[in-house]
Design brief:
Layout (H helix, E strand, L loop, with lengths): L1 H67 L15 E4 L4 E8 L4 E2 H4 L8 H13 L7 H8 L12 H4 L27 H7 L3 E2 L11 E2 L5 H4 L11 H9 L8 H4 L3 H6 L3 E2 L4 E10 L2 E10 L7 E7 L1
Parallel strand pairs: 3-4, 5-6
Antiparallel strand pairs: 1-2, 2-7, 7-8, 8-9
């Protein structure tokens, strides 16, 4: 009898252990499912906040434009140039805007026809010098954009890219996004980090190179605009002036100096293309939306680029 009772006790303990294990697994499944549900909802809400941040950025640009009261300029002293963050109740949304018009357009510097805009090409080479990067980087960039299959001495065409793993083809056309530059031979993440604030792929229209806004161009690009910009203290003078005042025409800086005349057709004081980056955060969920827009004064601005992640 004692043996039967002992065996029954063991069976009872085993059954109890199994029931406890099943209960624990059930509770864990409920917790995981509930957690997943909450995370999904939070992710959706973060995405909506990020999208709303883009619209908020556009409104901020429109307000800045209205405050100019018709002035033909845009500057880093305006409301759009300051990062914004808002409490949305269940989360936060942060907005940052930079002006693409204050950068050098690479599609003008590297032409499909192989004949780049003279000013853009020379400015890019000087920019590479100022960033302490090799001028040889220009050749693979030019090969990526041109339509022929003949590589430059330090460049790369389809024959090179087909040997990579995985293989791919060069665009043989205008660059469409900044991120695309990561596919070009020699343009490593470190190089792109140095170039990001100074170059853009937006702006050229009908083969005409866009003008660069002297109010928003970074220091390295300012120094690259003309071979004489590195002489004297022109760059420092511009940066100091911009701290408290807006350059409304080149004479504000250059006066009657011939350098102002030399830059007249290549440099202006107002931008037209902006990159808006908005981050929505709900709990631990974060969503980021990026948009490049132009015609911001219009009721419905033109979106040149959109990405959300």
């Amino acid at each position: 009898m004692r043996g039967e009772k002992g065996f029954a006790l063991v069976i009872a303990l085993v059954v109890t252990a199994l029931l406890v294990a099943l209960l624990v697994e059930f509770v864990n499944e409920v917790y995981v499912d509930t957690s997943h549900s909450h995370n999904f909802v939070a992710a959706q809400q973060a995405g909506i906040l990020a999208e709303s941040g883009i619209q908020g950025g556009i409104k901020l640009l429109q307000v800045s434009n209205a405050l100019r009261m018709g002035g033909n300029y845009s500057s880093l002293l305006e409301p759009w140039a300051s990062p914004q963050s808002f409490d949305a109740g269940n989360g936060t949304v942060s907005i940052g805007i930079e002006e693409e018009s204050g950068k050098l357009d690479l599609n003008s510097a590297a032409s499909q026809t192989g004949t780049p805009d003279v000013f853009s090409h020379a400015t890019l080479l000087r920019l590479l010098d100022n960033l302490k990067l090799s001028r040889d980087l220009y050749e693979p960039l030019a090969d990526w954009a041109d339509t022929d299959e003949t590589p430059r001495p330090n460049g790369a065409e389809g024959n090179y890219y087909r040997t990579l793993k995985p293989p791919y083809r060069p665009r043989d056309n205008k660059l469409e996004t900044f991120e695309e530059l990561a596919l070009v031979k020699g343009l490593t993440p470190q190089v792109l980090t140095q170039l990001r604030s100074c170059v853009t792929v937006y702006g050229s229209a009908n083969g005409v190179a866009p003008q660069i806004n002297i109010n928003t161009a970074p220091k390295e690009l300012l120094a690259s605009l003309h071979e004489d910009m590195m002489r004297g203290d022109w760059v420092e003078k511009i940066l100091e002036y911009r701290k408290s005042k807006v350059i409304k025409n080149l004479a504000d800086i250059f006066g009657a100096d011939p350098l102002g005349q030399a830059l007249t057709l290549k440099v202006n004081c107002k931008g037209a293309i902006y990159r808006i980056r908005a981050e929505g955060k709900v709990g631990e969920s974060i969503s980021i939306a990026e948009a490049v827009v132009t015609n911001v004064e219009a009721t419905k601005p033109t979106v040149l680029y959109w990405r959300q992640y």
